[in-house]
Amino acid sequence: MNARNTNDDAGQPDGCPPAARATTPAASSTTPAASAATPAASSTTPARPSLRFLWLSLAVLGASLTVFGTAMAAQDAGGTAAAQATVALSKSIGIWCAALMTIGILTFLYKDNPFYKVCESILIGVSAAYWMVNGFWSTLVPNLFGKLMPSVVREYAIPSLPVSDTPGFDMALAFVPLALGLMLLWRLAPKGGWISVWPLAFIIGTTAGIRLVASIEADLLAQASATIRPLVVMKESVLAPAAGGGSAATAEMAATAVRTVDFWGTVGAVTGVVGVLSVLSYFFFSLEHKGAVGKSARLGVWFLMITFGSAFGLTVMGRITLLAQRLEFLFKDWLGIG
Amino acid sequence: MNTNTHDRQGGGGGGSFLSRLGGLDRRWIFLAMGLSIAVPILLKLRFPEVPGPMARATFDAIESIPEGSRVLLAFDYDPASAGELQPMANAMVHHCAARGHRIVFMALWPLGKQMADATIKDVLLEFHPQYAYGTDYVQLGYKAGNEAVVKLMATDIPQQYSTDAAGAALASLPLVADVKSTTDFKLVASISAGYPGAKEWVQYANSANPEAFKLVSGSTGVQVSQLLPYYPAQMEGLLVAVKGAAEYEMLVTAAYPSADKPDLLAERLGQGRVRMGPQLVAHLLMIGLIILGNIAMVAGRSRGGAR
């Protein structure tokens, strides 16, 4: 966006927002001097659109709250029960917050602005706090404190904490992750930062061990096995069952079943095998990519490009769906359209 | 978006149009994209979907297990991916319930439990009110630990989940009282938005017991490239993004319509198809823009070369 704005300020009319366009002549009139005395001038110039966006954001917020307040007052005047009004209020606040946040984030498409910054900061802050709280309650409390002091956790935090058959052993074992966790936090201390390397080594070692076996089984052996398959795919061609069915008809149908070549299945199988071999040859650097190896590697590049294109297309589809869902929310849940 | 100065110096007619196109502010493209998605939503554009082989394979996998089988549905996503994954989750729960399968819900993502709760409320109990908690379905909830959760479930579920999400002991719930591992399920389905999700179910559950249960998955478009190699050898069915959801919805609603609430079923199990309308228009716009952009680029180069 900054590059875009720079171009706009340089006099490109198409992309120039009205606010920025209004300031352009003044800026251009002072250009030679301003370019010499730059820091102060350049720091004050962009402040105008920012302030305008701030006022615009506040106006949108104010208008939204006014509409919201009016709607709620109308609802209360409608004679709804107090309990129902409370539930509706809670839901309405949630919908309005979500709608304003959605619009706030989408305003970035026009230009970076304070409304967007506020929404972005709220998102980051809420996410960080959420993951911290989630980690505390879903990992530390049941898996560490629940082992070290189960009765306390059961009394004040998780009443359904399972009762262990070997509480003493569990408690002794829980001191291992406790010690490793404290060692990991040691890197915050001014001295002895090397202590945190040991739990890191433990984490890396165990993770690698767990993932190595799974990768070899699921991604290497099973995938290689799935690639080794008949290049000519056959399919069973059967006649449609006779009306009324019955065992005689079934027997007759089985007798007339024929095996024919599945053309598209065969194309798929051949393409799969050729694709795997050619892409592997592209990543085979022990031989110079010349002659047959070079041609195979070039074919592999084509397969890779098609794969990347496919992945890009799927990503675009996902992003469009996300926008569609947000617009559905704005239209249906917020504005009540459709 | 770097505007070529020589583009703006182009002549009239087609050259002028291409010059302007080359310098088009990208915000016009954002606006066009927004309209291409908003208008089909407002007009409720729907297009018929032809179920593809992967959606059909997912449907067949659930059909092929005996009625009343115990199935495990893992909601490995959160609201950020609900646009793509909630439609397929809704359809899958309705499909399983219509077949009489007994469903165990769980989640590898913290908010997956809430997504499953929403599906239980909006689909399972709405269209299958006879389903009783504990005997027909159980909500195990979320467990932290990523792939370690899957790995432990492949060998010892009671150790991983000693209670359900509400704190009731598994032994007190008939549906899961005798469950030992994932091999006690006929089918495992992961509605997955990323890590941890379908890939981990293949690597740690399916690899440990390849023949014990059928594994199917629904995935976001971003992640599905990583899962395609697993289909069909290690994963019997795969729903690819909202397109797969729409196709699967077609199959499920055609096979298992609702006699008493057809409109509600069409709404709850029609979200994928509703979102395919904007997909079509937005993709046409993108294709058009890519073609126009390339024409403008080639025209700009040729003019630059001529000079």
Please provide a written account of the structure.
The complex is a heterodimer of chains A (338) and B (307). With 338 residues, chain A is mainly alpha-helical. Chain A contains 13 helices and two strands. Chain A has a two-stranded antiparallel ribbon with strand order 1-2. Chain A is extended. Residues 1-47 and 79-83 of chain A have low confidence and may be disordered. Chain B has 307 residues and is α/β, with parallel strands linked by helices. Chain B folds into two domains: 5-43 and 275-306; 53-269, Rossmann fold (3-Layer(aba) Sandwich), CATH 3.40.50.10160. Chain B has 13 helices and six strands. Chain B has helices at residues 5-8, 14-22, 26-43, 53-64, 82-98, 112-127, 147-153, 157-160, 198-206, 224-227, 241-255, 262-268, 271-306, and strands at residues 70-76, 102-107, 137-142, 187-192, 214-219, 237-240. Chain B has a six-stranded parallel β-sheet, with helices on both faces. At the A-B interface, helix 1, helix 7, helix 10 and helix 13 of A face helix 3, helix 5, helix 7, helix 9 and helix 11 of B.
Q: What does this entry show, briefly?
A:
The complex is a heterodimer of chains A (338) and B (307). By secondary structure, chain A is mainly α.
- By DSSP, the count of extended strands of chain A is 2
Structural class of chain B: alpha/beta
Integer tally of domains of chain B: 2
Distance from first to last alpha carbon of chain A: 34 Å
Strands in their spatial order, largest beta sheet of chain A: 1-2
Into which percent range does the helicity of residues of chain A fall? over 70%
Q: For the record, what is the CATH homologous superfamily label of the largest domain in chain B?
A: MTH777-like
- The level 1 CATH classification of the largest domain in chain B is Alpha Beta
Q: Return Rg of chain B in Å.
A: 24 Å
| Count of separate DSSP helical elements of chain B | 13
The percent range for strand residues of chain B is 5-15%
Number of helices of chain A: 13
Largest interface: A-B, 48 and 61 residues
